[in-house]
Amino acid sequence: MPAPTRAEHREARALALLRELGAGHLDHPGGTLLAHLERVHARLGAWGARPALRLAGLCHAVYGTDGFATALLPVGRRAELAVVIGAEAEEIVCFYAACDRAASYPTLAADAPAGAAGAADNEAVSSVAPAFRDRFTGHVHSPDRQSLRDFAELSAANELDLAGIDPAFRAAHGPGLLSLFTRMRGLLTEPAWRDCQAVLGGPAP
Predict the structure, then answer these.
(1) CA geometry: angle 67, 35, 44, nearest 5 deg
(2) In 177-193, which positions are buried (b, 16+ CB within 10 angstroms) versus exposed (e)?
(3) Which carries the bigger pLDDT value, residue 105 or residue 2?
(4) Which segments of the chain does DSSP mark as H helices, in order?
(5) From residue 74, how far is each of 81, 97, 115 by CA, in Å?
(6) Measuring CA to CA, which residue among 112, 107, 103 is closest to residue 138?
(7) How confident is the model at residue 203 (pLDDT cuts 50, 70, 90)?
(8) Which of 87, 76, 93, 92 is nearest to 18 (CA)?
(9) What is the SS3 assignment for 191?
């Protein structure tokens, strides 16, 4: 039997940490928070996401989010998560958790017209810079393009899981989410965008 890869080792450690922190006992649409995190991780994998982004998907709610207030770890203990999943994945988790959605969503896709996903990171595709407000610190900044792509992909995986498993959530939020991800189209991979259309674009079940 081949030895586990680094990503597989980190996934196993991350699952152990999530269980230790009680994710398997927290209610969440579709069952438990842990089940949701595992589905988001699997969805990102199906889209071909790199290991760091998949790990971030598995742990994306560890610090809580603007849409899920319960934190498994305070953001002041970031080093504890980083040692388990790696610095790159932890940075994605923290970025995702820190997003003040009401303040940030209207501008995050401002420089991402459809078809711009392959643009160079430093390419100016719009005169309007995205403004990201950190809900932990209140700081507003313009993220780099890779951070925006990771955020968009993780956001889509998270919201599509909720929409796919909870008809009431889809009915209430589906149109708004489809509008959001249409604006973010240039930041999403093709598999993610096709999934957005499949889950959010058709008639409600």
Answers:
(1) 75
(2) bbebbbbbbbbbbebbb
(3) 105
(4) 6-20, 33-46, 51-58, 78-85, 87-98, 101-108, 145-165, 167-183, 190-200
(5) 10, 11, 38
(6) 103
(7) low
(8) 93
(9) helix
Radius of gyration (C-alpha) of the chain in whole angstroms:
16
Here the tokens at position 57 are: 């998907």
Q: How far apart are CA 199 and CA 185, in angstroms?
A: 15
pLDDT digits (tens, 9 = 90+) for 39-61: 999 999 999 999 999 999 999 99
Q: What is the pLDDT of residue 204?
A: 55
Q: Tokens 């196993």 map to which residue?
A: 12
CB atoms inside a 10 Å sphere around CB 73: 16
- Could you give phi then psi for residue 132, rounded to 5 degrees? -105, 120
| pLDDT (tens digit per residue) in 34-43 | 999 999 999 9
